[in-house]
Model the fold of this input.
Amino acid sequence: MDPDSAFEVSRGVAVVPHSILRVHGADGTETLDQLAVEEPLEIRLGGLAFTVTMRTPGADEDLVAGLLHTEGLIRGADNLDVIARYRGTDGETDPGNVINVLLKGDVQVARERLRRSLVVSSACGVCGKVTIDSIKTACPPVVSDAAVPAGLFPRLLDSMAAAQSTFERTGGLHAAGLFDTDGILVVLREDIGRHNAVDKVIGHMLRTRRLPLDRHILMVSGRASFEIMQKAWVARVPIVAAVSAPSSMAAQMALAANMTLVGFLRPSGFNVYSGAQRVLPANTRPSSHAPGRAGRLAAPGALTEA
Done:
């Protein structure tokens, strides 16, 4: 195969076929596999380059709206004028991967707001307390009387798995699903980046004017990072559930934001790292050794209260 041809992907597709050698024991078989697409998306504000993010094509307008909201540039749909694909000029390459945004108001003010308040990733080594305090200054703790039975959470696993069409084909995408407090799936988005999937969900709700999300549950297919908790905090999500583990900073952020954080979600049980008052178990056992104020499942299927 010509190496250059490997990068010739039809615009807008989320999955592409790829020739592989499948090895099983001593046998090898040439066949086709399905790979999740990863491509850059350039975001422009008023035609000027703003940022580039790697993502899986699909729901790009939702991704852009969600990113602008969770990073503090816009507060709602009323701040958006136009989100549209940039057609480009003659000679400009790949305009299909460029989104242009026109905001209502002063773009320079939005740029300055981003410069001051953008939350950097944990890879940059920023002190957790400083980062959390900077978010808390601009975003008060979540206020919500939402409470759900413990038995609802395993049902979310089944609902999300059934809706993950692209993951079923590739095994290579993260998903974020937004549910109401009855466990009904409202919207699901997939992406090669877990934070992109969350931005797509929040962006969809913003564009359909259904923010804040203080009566919803956000579920993610991987781990719960501080970036995911920060985005959920801005969107006012009271309950976040993850299939895998939370990071220490995600748990700290959940406590600071008065959010419920569920991790290691399995059909048989889960752990609650913060906000256990929103989880209504059928039977709760007190525990003298579980520290903190979160309330947690020490092991799947066994609820304890701190």
